[in-house]
Amino acid sequence: MLDKPATNLDPALIARFAAIVGEKYAITDPQAQAPYLVEMRNMFHGRTRLVLRPASVEEVSAILKLASDTATPIVPQGGNTGLVGGQIPLHGEVVLSLNRLDRIREVDPTSNTLTCEAGVTLQRAREAAAAVDRLYPQVLPSEGTCTIGGNLSTNAGGTAAIAHGIARSHALGIEVVLADGRVLNNLNKLKKDNTGYDLKNLFIGAEGTLGIITAAVLRLVPRPRAVETAFAGVPSVEAALELLGIAAERTAGGVTSFELMTRRGIELVLAHAAGTRDPLAATHPWYVLIELSSQQRQGLREVMEDVLAQGMERALVLDATIADSIEQRKAFWRIRDMFGEVQRHAGGSIKHDVSVPVASVPAFIKEANEAVTKLIPGARPLPFGHLGDGNIHYNVTQPEGADKDEYLKRWDDVNAVVFAVVKKYGGSISAEHGVGVVKRDLLPSVKDPVALDLMRGLKHLLDPKNILNPGKVL
């Protein structure tokens, strides 16, 4: 943790930056800066002399022009919900908060697009789509706080990625301010545009290291006319995967979520998340939360019942219940949404956001469990996540009664054995949370050397003075 005040900005330069956004939106008071300097896991504490809150792309452009001229490092920040430290100023950089860029510029239901600025929250984007009977299909538990700019910058995933893809899949065009202050205006609404390189994908997932996304054109889809949600107990991860195959075949693309959870984690949710209760009468080793969607108003309930019935016939489903109301559906989802958060009540947790091919998920979980419990006897794996796209949040909680601080010192050791299994199955050590600083130093060991060389070359080309989120990703 860095707790010394930043000293790299003199008062005259602070005044020049403040003049761009106005004194009210140039935060220098340490107490007022506090929310911008600590992320939600409390793993990283930043420091800065200045937080800037611009209200327009023109102000962002002016800030970066001045930053470039004076070689002043900038850390862009959206809703500050990132989980890998990419949004925290660890070395006294200026924080550029984008949450005042919050206009929805256009909703076009005929073209199925929504154009909005980077500071618009995911919830507002989804509400704006719903107002014209459309769906913006990214779903994240932090939707009330996370922003579109942040989602695109980290290429966020979510619980609906199995059907609709991750953040990159939803962006048709973007507006980006480059390190020298120039504005790349690529806000087209076209599904087909072959006029050269697809530049937008350089910036999506780059975590603000190549440019700052200030607006985007988002792809909308028709709102489903029917949604059915089921909570099922299953005997194994293999059974869950086979059940996913049945659901996918039966619905031809109608599986919009398929979430996997272990019983040990369910018990933590029931013990520590207010208002939750066990959906099933008996306990089971594993659970899946299944959601089906359809454009047909009738018949989806029967489809869900058929999927579960086939699962029971094949001994893949031990018990299941289908939500009979919106309230019950929300209750099912609350268990899933709280699954990661409540793990802190069991002590120290070493967390991983990994992906492997969907077919390899059962073998990955089995071998990773064996590896971590051999490394640390009594360690408690609590894997959960998006079985449908192979993205598992593989969290490992300390042994009961262990010293938390001593356990967390083994973070790198646990990483090593988990990532070895990920590598064996051709997976990724960062599925949807990004690289930030948490995984930056691991990148050379898992990334193709040529790919890494190209990444460094792009960074130098687009940010030759290394002022955009320095020390993150690379």
Describe this structure in words.
Helix content is 34%, strand content 20%. The chain is α+β, with helices and mostly antiparallel strands and 474 residues long. Strands 12, 13, 14, 15, 16, 17, 18 and 19 form an 8-stranded antiparallel β-sheet that branches. α1 (11-21) runs antiparallel to α3, α9 packs antiparallel against α11 and α13 (361-375) runs antiparallel to α15 (411-424). The radius of gyration is 23 Å and the shape is globular. Residues 1-7 have low confidence and may be disordered.
Main attributes?
single chain; 474 residues; alpha+beta; eight-stranded antiparallel sheet; five-stranded antiparallel sheet; 17 helices; disordered N terminus
The biggest beta sheet reads: 8 strands, antiparallel
- Number of separate strands: 19
Determine the mean pLDDT. 95
Put simply, the count of helices is 17
Helix content: 25-40%
Distance between the termini: 20 Å
User: Which residues sit in consecutive blocks of at least 5 with pLDDT less than 50?
Assistant: 1-7
Overall outline: globular
| Helix-strand makeup class | alpha+beta
Strand content: 15-25%
Rg over CA atoms: 23 Å
